[in-house]
Amino acid sequence: MNRGGRARLVAACAICAVAALAPNAHAGPVVDRIRAEGAIRCGGVSRPGLVGQRPGGREASGLYLDLCRAIGAALLGPEGRIAFHPYDFDAAFDLVRDGRDDLAFLDGSEILDERLAGRTLLGPAVAFVSTGVRVSVDSPVRTLADLAGRSVCFYQGSGAHRTLEAWMAARKLDFTRMPYTEYGEMDDAFAAAKCDAEAGETGDLAIASLSGKRPSRILPEPLASFPVFAATPASDPQWAAIVAWAIVTVQRAGLPAGPWTARAEASAPEAGDLGLSDDWAKRVLAAAGSYADIYDRNLGDRSPLRLPRGPNAPAEAGGLFVTPFRE
């Protein structure tokens, strides 16, 4: 082959390489379906403040629903609709397994127990759920270590039970175990002062405290905290990218710019890289506000639960959320 032929071949290969690296103009199957139906299908296990009915309310609400709405706005705009499916029985996870739900909020146990790891693309963490302990408001117990020698109610075999045992064993502390197999009976036992403390997920403890049967407070130190992730069907990487960057945009909104941080919009990828319109980040924030707004109205001071952000704060404020930014 002569020099001219080699040059043409190199040029042709370079064009092929650029074409291969360029963003795919054709949307993925999940993106196509969402656009065709004008709706996004989401799901997750019911947890207070994350998804469910507000105490005394009629309509479903929660952090998952707000995030679903915000992510849908990136693709569909304000006219987009959402459908939410609670995964409150084993068969409901078939919606994730079969790819019928576009976005699932799942923790590690749910992913592994339901064998969903090979069927989903794991996205960012959207919330950290904590297990903790509540005591009566007049209890002398101020820290978890103060539980030594005291009676603690817990649901047998639950995550709170396991983390309670692990926390106390790691510090060589013992306590009186009061296991239950019905959540209602456990709450009633605490209300009747049959145990000094009750272990559970902090959202459940906060809801139980609203009954007022035995005024209580949740100890500030958690037993453990674990992440809930945004998971999408493995069939569509483009949709997974849209979900991930929409969540990052919500989480970074409202953070002050500094030497190592930037405003949410300045840290967002180009719209063309995601196959979205130029105003996608603004539409995300207009749909539900910042993560601080979403947390506050569903779990924080503007909600009945009044749970502190704790691990659900950004790393800059002592929490566990870390998001990409421009250096």
TrEMBL record:
GO terms for biological process: amino acid transport. Residues 39-302 form the Solute-binding protein family 3/N-terminal domain. Keywords: Signal, Transport. InterPro entries: Bact_solute-bind_prot3 (IPR051455), Solute-binding_3/MltF_N (IPR001638), SsuA/THI5 (IPR015168). SUPFAM superfamilies: Periplasmic binding protein-like II (SSF53850). Residues 1-27 form the signal peptide. Belongs to the bacterial solute-binding protein 3 family. This is General L-amino acid transport system substrate-binding protein.
